[in-house]
Amino acid sequence: MRRLRITFNSPVVLGFIFLCFGALELGAITGGVTDQLLFMTYRSPLTDPLTYIRFFTHVFGHSGWEHYINNASYLLLLGPLLEEKYGSKPIIQIIVITALFTGVVNYILFYNVALCGASGVVFAFILLTSFTNFRQGDIPLTFILVTVLFLGQQIHDGILIQDDISNLSHIIGGIIGAIVGYNLNRDYY
User: Whole-angstrom Cα distance, residue 150 to residue 152?
Assistant: First the structure.
């Protein structure tokens, strides 16, 4: 009888989750100082080198346990399947591209809003997942339904509900996931 063993099956996704957890704990230990310094993006002088670093590192920060758990659950559910199918490098690229685009757009459009969290990456993964059975010349019905449901909800909520959720980051992440999903799968077929 073979013994069961735990495997590190998705190094990028697991590494990302652990970095987010570390940022959350560091924020708790420092009373939020590290969150403002490194793990959220906001309008700060372009002469400040940390402004550019935060364009990427804001995806590691989370506003609290509930925010972290919600994002981590989706990332752990979808990420390993995507990393197995596409490999680690494209997953890293999706995370980096999503972080950069959401960070820069928030910086330009929302001068009074700080942005943190991996929700944009989650939405990129959600839309990318709907392309896993893509074939050249076909548009998967799952992609259409996911787009209508998830992005439609974000557009609706962004217009009608005033809360601390960055619906635009979700939409940007979803668009990135759709574009990358289409391009990755187009090359397979």
Answer: 5
- Whether 80 and 154 have beta carbons less than 8 Å apart is answered as no
The SS3 call for residue 47 is coil
| Distances from the Cα of 54 to the Cα of 58, 59, 107, 158, angstroms | 5, 9, 10, 24
Q: What pLDDT shows up at residue 153?
A: 77
* Rounded CA separation 11/23 (Å): 18
Domain boundaries, the chain: 11-188
Give the pLDDT band (50/70/90) at residue 131: confident
Coil, strand or helix: which one is 115? strand
At 80-130, the pLDDT tens digits run: 999 999 999 999 999 999 999 999 998 998 888 889 999 999 989 988 887
Side chain identity at 81, as an amino acid letter? L
Decide: 143 and 77 in contact? Cβ < 8 Å: no
Q: Which residue has the higher pLDDT, 67 or 160?
A: 67
CATH 3.40.50.720 for domain 11-188, yes or no, is: no
Specify the residue for token string 């364009």: 55
